[in-house]
């Protein structure tokens, strides 16, 4: 969860705008943490599946789901690179600073969703991952968010659309 809630809301609204959901889509939220992005998107989608390796974060995501009375979101405790579900229109990724693993990138290329919304806290690993995803995706737009003023860190939201 981001401590700068004002900027976080702007970032999440950008994810919603890039997602451009119509209500019938199935969304995969990789590296979902406590489920906040998936819960934020759930009102615009048919269903959301959040994946996170940290068991306590998944426990908190389930509590967040209950507190917010969300019925169209589920959470699985798993490594993002071990997922094999195939039926998603949109994938949102918000990986750690290390970015996406090679296995996760291959999964995304195999899954071939219409859109990927990539939330990144490290421009270097974002650039590395985008270079690998560009064989099947165009970068449509990128927005920066100064989540941590007076530091060199920025959050980035990037929209990728299938070629």
What is the averaged pLDDT score? 93
Topology as a string of helices (H) and strands (E): HEHEHEEHEHEE
Instruction: Give the biggest sheet.
Output: 7 strands, mixed
* Fraction in helix: 25-40%
Which band does the percent of strand residues land in?
25-35%
Shape: globular
Query: What gap, in angstroms, lies between the N and C termini?
Result: 32 Å
Order of strands, main sheet, comes to 3-2-1-4-5-7-6
Q: Using DSSP, what is the number of strands? A: 7
Number of helices: 5
As a whole number of angstroms, the C-alpha radius of gyration is 15 Å
**Which structural category fits the helices and strands?**
alpha/beta
List segments where confidence is low: pLDDT < 50 over at least 5 consecutive residues.
none
Q: How would you characterize this protein structure?
A:
- It is built from 5 helices and 7 strands; from the N terminus they run αβαβαββαβαββ.
- Strands 3-2-1-4-5-7-6 form a 7-stranded mixed beta sheet, sandwiched between helices.
- The N and C termini lie far apart (32 Å).
- The protein has 163 residues and is α/β, with parallel strands linked by helices.
What's a concise summary of this model?
The protein is of the alpha/beta class and 163 residues long. Helices cover 34% and strands 26% of the residues. The protein contains five helices and seven strands, in the order αβαβαββαβαββ.
């Amino acid at each position: 969860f981001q401590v700068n809630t004002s900027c976080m809301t702007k970032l999440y609204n950008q994810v919603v705008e890039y997602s451009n959901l119509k209500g019938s889509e199935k969304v995969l939220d990789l590296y979902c943490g406590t489920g906040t992005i998936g819960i934020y998107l759930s009102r615009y989608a048919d269903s959301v599946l959040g994946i996170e390796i940290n068991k306590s974060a998944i426990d908190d995501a389930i509590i967040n789901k209950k507190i917010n009375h969300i019925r169209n979101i589920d959470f699985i405790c798993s490594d993002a690179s071990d997922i094999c579900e195939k039926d998603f229109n949109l994938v949102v990724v918000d990986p750690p600073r290390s970015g996406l693993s090679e296995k996760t990138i291959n999964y995304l290329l195999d899954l071939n969703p219409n859109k990927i919304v990539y939330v990144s806290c490290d421009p270097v690993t974002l650039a590395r991952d985008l270079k690998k995803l560009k064989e099947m995706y165009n970068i449509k737009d990128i927005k920066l968010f100064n989540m941590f003023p007076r530091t060199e860190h920025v959050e980035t939201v990037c929209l990728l659309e299938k070629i």
